[in-house]
Amino acid sequence: MRIITHACPACGTVVAANELESRRVMKCPGLHCEEVHRFDDLEDEEREHFLENKDQYRI
Ligand SMILES: [Zn+2]
Fold first, then answer.
1. How much distance in Å is there from the Cα of 16 to the middle of ligand 1?
2. Predicted confidence (pLDDT) per residue in 31-46, tens digit
3. Ligand 1 centre from 36 Cα, in Å?
4. C-alpha distances out from residue 56 to 4, 5, 33, Å
5. Residue 24 Cα, ligand 1 centroid: separation in angstroms?
6. How far is ligand 1, taken at its centre, from the CA of residue 4, in Å?
């Protein structure tokens, strides 16, 4: 299975696509980081791949 993640441009913390998808908008989990991450921050191609294979990403 392909791992899709988004790296915070401010602090480098990596957020998993399934977390972004379940919350849509989330504050960066990085310590003292005020960056906000959205599912839309992923590349179009990554979003598509994630949505097509969503079942595989459920843990
Ligand atoms: Zn961050």
1. 13
2. 999 999 999 999 999 9
3. 8
4. 12, 15, 30
5. 16
6. 17
What's the gap in Å between 10 CA and the centre of ligand 1?
5
Compute, in angstroms, the gap from residue 44 CA to the centroid of ligand 1: 21
User: In this structure, which long-range contacts are made by residues 11-20, counting pairs with CB atoms below 8 Å and at least 24 apart in sequence?
Assistant: 11/35, 17/42, 17/46, 17/50, 17/57, 18/50, 18/57, 18/58, 18/59
Length of the chain: 59
pTM: 0.83
Residue 24 makes CB contacts below 8 A (sequence gap 6+) with 38, 39
